[in-house]
């Protein structure tokens, strides 16, 4: 399925644009890796910045804001040469998206002691000489680089780091807008834990096939089970989601049982699929990239409304066609619908 999709996408974009298109096979990036390195499952790979996990590095550093929470870092090449307004803009953006602040360390070209490559910034005083050396080595820090820090709760840190990565790419003009970079995001988690109830629930497509089938459902920790789900992404835009669909009733029963559904729930709420599976549904998979989104990318537009023939406004109204409109009482009767006003 992925090979077919990437062949069609590659040939389509090559046919309708003169810009470079990432060659096949497209990168296959596991969901967990995408969230850690890019802070999103729709990464724009034209942005060269990568998020680093610095949580373990700071476990023995006596710096209160980084204690007992995940810490991420992003190395911005040459950012130390930027004006003060650049750092003020980045701080304002961080606060706007919900962060308490945006710490950073820069690598000087001519340190106070006369040495090049010294680290400077408020956080440096909390780092021993060995820690500073390790940071320079582990992240390959060079003169005039700036390392930005994002620290927050586990359920928020990756998303925040992803937004900082995107904003840095924009502010530093690092994104090459003259090419198309495709990738597949694969290995989505089958289940997650609801933050409010603490219960296990489906995270994406409940009707997809779990990797490992029934055996995985019966023997593995639900939070470790991966699904045969995949997205195709281009330049930070999700073109399509797809999956290998479950086609076995026993797998469906167990998968939904883990998420808190009884067999009676399945028979009443999903009877069409449940009944069909008993007649021998074949293994099947698919995906359907959106034509509108493809045209949007080919046209170089940022908003899909610019390429849709009759775009809807924020209230889901088509102003040109005057839709939706009031239906008549006769139409309601024909479809056996009664309105409560």
Descriptive report:
The chain has 341 residues and is an alpha+beta fold. It has 2 domains: 176 residues, Bira Bifunctional Protein, Domain 2 (BirA Bifunctional Protein, domain 2, 2-Layer Sandwich); 125 residues, GAD-like domain (Gyrase A, domain 2, 2-Layer Sandwich), CATH 3.30.1360.30. The chain contains 11 helices and 12 strands. The protein has a 5-stranded mixed beta sheet. Strands 2-3-6-4-5 form a 5-stranded antiparallel beta sheet. A two-stranded antiparallel sheet has the order 8-9. Helix 6 packs parallel to helix 7. The chain is globular. The two termini are 47 Å apart. 26% of the residues are buried.
Strand order of the largest sheet: 1-7-10-11-12
Order of helices and strands: HEHEEHEEHEHEEEHEEHHHEHH
CATH superfamily of the largest domain: Bira Bifunctional Protein, Domain 2
What's the number of domains? Answer: 2
> How many individual β-strands?
12
